[in-house]
Structures are given as C-alpha cells and as structure tokens.
Write a sequence for this structure.
C-alpha cells in the first residue's frame, strides 16, 4: 500500500467503514510508516474534538409549523370506513347481499394493508428519540422475562449476535389496538423491529416480503404466532434475518 | 375513501420525514450559510419530498431527503450567482479565508484544543464545495459512506477522497488558527 492510498483509507479506518482485510492492510501500513501514523493520530484526535463540539443546528419551531401547515390536515368529523359501508348496506338490502362477497374480500385485503401500515408506523415511531426500547439489554434472559405479565403472549427472544444481528432490547407497542411485543435488533446502523402477536391459526405461513414507504416488512406465521420483521435493511438482508431467527428457534 | 388515503399518506410522510427535520436543517445551514435561506430551502425540500413520496422506495430516508435538499440548494446557488457576482468574489474574502494547501502533516502532531461550536462551524463553513458537503454529511449528519454516495450521486471512492481532503483542509486551517492565536 502506498502512502497516497493510506492517506485516504485511514479515514475509512477511523469511520469503521473498512472490511477486516482492508483494515488490517491499513493498520500494517500505519505501523511501518511514521508519517501516515502521525496523520492517523492527528485525524483521530480531530474527530474526538469535533465529537465534543455541538455542531448541529436545531430547526426553528416556526419552520416545523410551516411544514406541518403545508400537509393535508386531519379533520375531526371524518366518516370512518365502517360508517361509509353501513351507509351502503342500508341503501338496499338486495344490493347489500350482492355486494357482501365483494365487501368481505375488499375488507380482508384492506385489513392486511392497514396492519402493514400500522406495523410500519410503529417501526417509524420507535426510531424517534427515546422510543426504541423499554428494556435495554443484549441478554435474552433479561429481555424475555420482562415481557411476562405485560402481554397475553410470550415473544420468543433470541440472541442472534453471532449471526450478525445484535439483540438490543424489547418494547411494548400497539398494533391493531392491541398490545404487542417488539423485540429490537440492530445490524450496523439499521434497526430491525420484530413484532410478535398471538394468533389462533397454528399453521405455518411462509415468510413474505412487502414494501411500504421504503421499509421492508417480512411477515410470517409459526407456532401460533404472527411475526412482522420491519427494517430499512435491504430485502435480502431482512430475509436472512428471518431465516436465522427461525433456524435458531427450531435448532 | 380518497380523503382518508390522503390523510394516511400525510401521516406516514410526517412520521417518516419530520424526525429528520433537524438533520435536514443542519445540512441546509452549512450549505447555504444563511438561516433564513436555509429555512426556505428546507420547506421547499419537504414540499418536493411530499410530492414524490409515493414513488419513494429507498434508499434510507435521510439520504433521500438530503438528495432533494441538494437540488433545492443548487437552485439557490444559481439564483445567488445571478443576483450578484459569485459569493467568493466578495472583497477581502480571499484574505479572510485560510489557505487550503494540503500541507504534509508534521510528524510531531500537536493536540488540537477544544473549541466552541461557533468557532468550529466557521472553520467548516470556510471549506470549499464539494468537500464541505461530504464532511458535514459524514461528521455531523452521521451518514455512512454508502449513504453519502446515494445522497450526492457520486461513487463511494469519490466520497472517500473528498472526505480525506476535507479533513486534511480542516485540520490545516485549525492548526493555522491556533498558531496565529499563540
């Protein structure tokens, strides 16, 4: 490795962006080259001083208000979907009968879509400061008992650190107006929320990925539980998560 | 149902984008160096984001918002250039701006003293583009190299060399100031 390369790569080393092989190469160069070593230490030093200074700005409240005001506003007196349907049904008994099959199908899909959107909303909420975790622990034996008595279901809590997904804690959340368990994992900077709820359906349902607003959600059912894994991870990495999780639980 | 769809969409938009408002505003402040221009740019950025929200499929939300903000800021640069001669041409600016020669770091490196945020912001503000932008995205907005590449539409290799240069320039300016103060 030349000094020119090292002068660029040492920053990637500082930022933890190098894979193990390249990191070793840069470290080896630094060990041999006093000039690059000095630059590395100087940059590390500067990074520390920078981290201590508060360099962020806070958006003024007036700006937040202006943006809020430009969004479609909810109105209090909004008819719910249910009352709209009731209006339909009351129109004519015959047409209501004829339509009922269609309505049932529409509603079922709608329900899944609604739950998916609730799951994504819960994931987003959890990313806001201070909302991610109720019980902070990387130890599955701390997180699992924490759920006891809080839910009608005992979410499986499995440490997947060795498989590349670090357990960081658990949280209570609400989906479909019910309390639900969320087990939180991290891979690099990415958060994975695993939502778990009980279902009367004990059949295995194969994992399926859906995308909503840029988030991937992988949903499956097993052992009488419904699972939703939500993250901004790429679809293949999220699939890997589900695979590792299922392998760990059965294995 | 279109009304409630619209509301649900707005709610998702709110939840997805508003947590990043401080981040977006921070980048705008560094890029435009003016509080009220930054506010206007951020508002325009959110308007455009809302318009394109349906087609948003990633990357992560922050880089996506930053990419939109950059476009808005570029338009602002163009407007400023039109209004009067380029901002760098202000008399005296050349003298005030520290010289950004990439100096060989002296082996006996000294420890930088902590500075208050205002002084450090000034040093960062003085960095030339595109180095400043890359530096702010990494050091202040905490983006990964991949995310910076997504936000600025450049290869990761370019991001790495810009960042190395930005940090070398910043450190040179910082030490120069400390020597002057002595």
């Amino acid at each position: 490795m030349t000094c020119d390369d090292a002068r660029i790569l040492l920053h990637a080393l500082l930022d933890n962006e190098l894979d193990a092989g390249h990191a070793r190469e840069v470290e080896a160069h630094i060990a041999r080259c006093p000039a690059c070593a000095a630059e590395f230490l100087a940059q590390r030093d500067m990074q520390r001083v920078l981290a201590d200074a508060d360099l962020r700005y806070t958006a003024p409240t007036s700006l937040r208000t202006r943006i809020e005001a430009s969004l479609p506003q909810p109105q209090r007196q909004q008819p719910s979907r249910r009352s709209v349907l009731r209006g339909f049904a009351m129109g004519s008994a015959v047409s209501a009968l004829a339509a009922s099959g269609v309505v049932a199908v529409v509603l079922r899909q709608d329900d899944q879509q609604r739950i998916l959107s609730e799951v994504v909303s819960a994931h987003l909420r959890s990313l806001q400061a201070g909302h991610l975790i109720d019980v902070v622990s990387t130890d599955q034996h701390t997180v699992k008992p924490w759920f006891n008595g809080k839910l009608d279901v005992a979410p499986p809590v499995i440490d997947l650190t060795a498989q590349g997904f670090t357990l960081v804690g658990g949280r209570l959340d609400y989906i479909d107006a019910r309390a639900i368990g969320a087990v939180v994992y991290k891979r690099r900077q990415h958060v994975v929320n695993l939502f778990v709820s009980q279902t009367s359906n004990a059949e295995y349902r194969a994992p399926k990925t859906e995308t909503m607003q840029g988030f991937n959600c992988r949903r499956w059912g097993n052992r009488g539980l419904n699972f939703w894994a939500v993250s901004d991870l790429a679809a293949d990495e999220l699939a890997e998560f589900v695979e590792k999780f299922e392998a760990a639980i059965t294995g | 149902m279109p009304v409630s769809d619209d509301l649900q969409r707005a709610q998702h938009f709110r939840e997805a984008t508003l947590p990043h408002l401080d981040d977006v505003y921070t980048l705008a402040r560094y890029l435009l160096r003016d509080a009220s221009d930054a506010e206007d740019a951020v508002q325009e950025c959110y308007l455009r984001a809302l318009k394109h929200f349906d087609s948003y499929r990633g990357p992560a939300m922050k880089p996506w918002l930053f990419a939109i903000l950059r476009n808005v800021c570029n338009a602002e640069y163009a407007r400023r250039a039109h209004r009067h001669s380029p901002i760098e041409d202000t008399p005296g600016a050349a003298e005030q701006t520290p010289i950004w020669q990439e100096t060989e770091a002296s082996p006996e490196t000294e420890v930088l003293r902590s500075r208050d945020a205002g002084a450090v912001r000034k040093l960062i503000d003085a960095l030339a583009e595109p180095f400043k932008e890359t530096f702010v995205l990494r050091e202040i907005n905490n983006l990964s190299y991949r995310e910076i590449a997504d936000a600025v539409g450049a290869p990761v290799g370019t991001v790495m060399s810009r960042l190395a240069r930005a940090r070398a320039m910043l450190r040179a300016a910082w030490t120069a100031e400390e020597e002057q103060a002595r």
About this structure: Chain A touches chain B through 58 residues (CB under 8 Å). Chain A has two domains: 3-50, 107-250.
